User: What shape does this take?
Amino acid sequence: MPMTVGLKINLYKIQEVFIMKFKPENYIKAVKKTPQLKEMGIVEKDSKYDIIASEFIKYCMKRIAVHQNEEEFWFYNYKTQQYEQLSDSRIRKVFFNMICEPNDNIWNAAIEKKYIDYFRRYVTEFQTTGYEPGILQFTNGILDFSGENVTFAKASPKYFCQFRLPYEYHEDAECPQFMDFLDAIHYHVRSEGQIVSCLRIAPVVHPHRCSCRLMPCYPDTVLFQHAVVPVW
Assistant: This one.
C-alpha cells in the first residue's frame, strides 16, 4: 500500500513538471536594449511599416533556437531548458512578441504572412530524432553515455531530446533498494564459453528516491553506474 500511494504522488508531480503555462517570451533570448528597426529588417515610411522577411527571420534566429522534425517545429524553451513542439498559433505568438518589441503598431496580417512563409522555408531540420540511445535529459542537465566516456553537461540548444526525466542527476547518489532489486533478478547464461550477465531493467518508484544503475552485458567491461533523485 505505501508503494501505491508513493506512485500516485509521483505521477501527479510528473504532471506538474510538464504541464506549464505557455509564455512566448520563454522561447526568446532577452536583449539589454530594444532592437532597432533596421537590424530587424523593418522599414518605416510615412508612419507605415513593411518588412524584409529574410532579414527579420535571420535576426530572429539569433534569439531563438528552432528546428524542424518532419512537419513539426520544435522551439527551445530557455526557461525549462528543453525543446518543445509548438503549434502554428503559438509559433505566431513567439514572432509577434519579437516584432512588437520596438513598437506595438508594427504588426499586421500582411507582414505576418511574409515572415511566416519565409520562416517555414528557412528553418533547418534536425539531424537527430530526439530519441538517440545513450542520451538522457534530466532537470539539471544532459547525461551522455552513448560513447566510451560518460559526460554530464548543462542543457543547451545543441542537445535535442523529445522528453525530459523529472529528476536531477547526481553521480555520487546511492541506490541501495534498486541494487537489491537487480540482485534479485540477476542471472547468468553461457555464451561462446563466456559468462554473460543479463539484466531485465524495470522502473522502480520510491516515495523518497528513484535510482537506477546501468550494467553492461559482459562482466569484463567497465561498470557504469548512475543514479537520479527526484526534484520534489
Observations:
- The chain has two domains: 18-122, 135-230.
- The chain has five helices and twelve strands.
- The first helix runs from residue 2 to 18.
- The longest strand covers residues 72-77.
